[in-house]
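If you are new to this repository, start here. Below is one unmodified record pulled from the training split, so you can see the exact layout before writing a loader.
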Amino acid sequence: MMIKVIVLESDPTLAWLLREELEDAGFGVRLCRDLHHAQSALGTEPVDILLSDVCNADAHLADALGVLGKIHHCSVVLLGPKDRSPVCSGDPVMLRKSSDLQPLIKFLRGQAAKALWLRSTPANA
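And here is the target side for that same chain:
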């Protein structure tokens, strides 16, 4: 079962690079250039992870992504200047933005394993 990721990124070059790396790592990726497109995509196809660059996001976008993640039962991962654990369960996770995407891919694989396990439990079936 493939884990699906929405990458919310307005820079087409960065979006393309993220998609290439994540697809090479085995993820299904859908690119969205803004919050409106991400919300539309979530309405038509469920995903496991929403990924965005917090440096391009204001506080309202980060909050909106957190709400979308809770409504659509997916993890929200923000890339920013430093790592930060979520305050509450279901809050966005912030990972350090880096040109080396291996830590991000490792984290997403952990999220993928968690999502697959949750799908396989009888209460979520």
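Two things worth knowing about this chain: The chain has a mean pLDDT of 79. Residues 35 and 61 are 7 Å apart (CA to CA).
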